[in-house]
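Anyone else keep sequences and C-alpha cells together like this?

Example one:
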Amino acid sequence: MEKQTFDPWVWGKNTNSVQAVEVKNVTGTLYCSGQVALDANGIPSNDNMRSQLIQTIQNLEHLISESGYECKNIIRLNVYTTSTQESFTTCMDVYVPFIQKHGIQQATTLLEVKGLFAMLTVELEATVVK
C-alpha cells in the first residue's frame, strides 16, 4: 500500500489531520462503524467526555487490531461530538497522543451533533487500509 498526504496550506501543519489522503495498491479497506464508550458488555458510559474519549479510542484500537489492520493506516477519522468546545478544551490531551502514538496522518471531519446514543458525548468513525 502506498499513501500520500496533501496539506497545501501552512495553517494545516498546525492541525491534527491532513487535508487529503491518497492511497494506491490497497489490498483491503476496513470501514469502521462509529465507535463509542461502550464497555465489554455493551453498556454505554455516562462519564465525562474525556473519560468517554479514552474508552472510545480503546474500542477503536481493539476493533482495528481484531480486524487484522493497524491504526497507523487510518486514512479517514470522523469525530462526532455533542460539544466541539468541550472536546477542544478537555480532550485534546487524549486525542493528540493517540494520533501521534500511531503516526496517523488522516483526513478528518469534526462535527457537533445534537445527540448521540444514550448519554454518549463522542464517537469516532474510521476508514483503514492495508
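And example two:
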Amino acid sequence: MQEIKKEVVMTTDHESFLLETRLKKQRDFWESKLTAVENEIMERHINFLRESGAVDKILKKGDIAPKFNLKNQHNEIITSTDLLKNGPLIVSFYRGSWCPYCVEEVKALNTFYPQIKETGADLVVLSPQSLQRTEKQASEIHLKYSLLVDEDNKIGKEFGLVYEFPTYLKDLYQGRFNNNIQEINEGSAWELPIPARFIIGQDGKILEVHADPDYRFRPEPITTLNYLKNKMK
C-alpha cells in the first residue's frame, strides 16, 4: 500500500485542475484558523493512526476486494460485480461533504471522470454520510459518477479503513466544528474511514492502493488516470 507523498510532483500545465493546489489552500487556511492546541490534537490523532497499526489493516495490492451493493445519489442500487463486468473499477473512500478536503477531491474526480471512462474503467466514491447529504452534495456539484452511501461504514470496514473517534477528538469536532459525526452519518457510532483510493481489476483483485491517515492529502486524479492508461495498453 502506498501513502501519499507530501512532496507532490506537478504533472500538468493546467494548475487549476491540480487537486494538491486546492488541498494546500485548505491546509493553509485551517492551520491559521485553528489554535495551536487544536492543531496539536489533529496531529496527535493522525500520528496515532499511523503508529497504532490501523494502516496495516487496510487491504493491499493483490488482495481480493469486497463486493458491495450500495445506494447512490439517485437512490439506485449500484453493484460492484456489475461494474467490474465492463472494466476496472476505482473505489474511493472519503469522509463526507462536511470535510473541505473531501469536497475538493470529489470535485477533482468529477473533472477527470470522462477521461477515466474513456480508458474503459469506472469510478464510484463511498462515504458513510446519510443519503440526504449525499443527494444534496451530488446535486450541488452536478456529479457525473455515483456517490455511494456506505451505511455504518460496512464496506469501509471490509476494506480495513474504519476507525472510531477517541474522546479528545470527538470533543474537538463537536465543540469547534459543530460536527456530530454519528448524527451526520445517521450511524451507530462515531466512526470514519481513512481516505483511500483503490483500483480493482476485473478479476476482483486490488491493483493499486493509495491511503493516508492524514486526510489533508489525497492522490491526484491524473495519477490514477495515467495508471489506467498504462494498464489498458
